[in-house]
Amino acid sequence: MLDLLKTKNSISLKDDPKISALKAVTWRIVGTIDTIVISFLLTGNATIAFSIGGFEVFSKMLLYFIHERAWAKITRRHGGE
Questions:
Q1: Helices 17-43 and 46-77, packing angle to 10 deg
Q2: Tens of pLDDT along 25-78?
Q3: Neighbour-count burial of 59, counting CB atoms closer than 10 A to its CB (0-12 exposed, 13-18 middle, 19+ buried)
């Protein structure tokens, strides 16, 4: 994983698609842990908290995909590619 952070060529780390993918995955992990913790604090039940967190992983990915496709459609309609 850390090998992705080391670059041997002139590509900037912030422009590397591998870094973007790694950041997306780690951010989703952080978001899911946050959801699990909040769910546990509200319910006091670890099983329910992990169930909510597990469901949330997939629902957020689906919602993001729909959001991204909507923006792509808007961008094309208003002079994008």
A1: 140
A2: 899 999 999 999 999 999 999 999 999 999 999 999 899 889 989 988 888 887
A3: exposed
Count CB-CB contacts under 10 A for residue 38: 13
Cα-based distances in Å from 40 to 43, 51, 54? 5, 10, 13
Pull the structure tokens for residue 65.
């995909």
Nearest partner of 57 among 74, 37, 80, 35, judged by Cα: 35
Q: Rounded CA gap, 21 and 42, in Å?
A: 32
- Looking at the whole model, is its pTM more than 0.85? no
- Nearest-Å Rg of the Cα atoms of the chain is 18
Give the H/E segment covering residue 19: helix 17-43
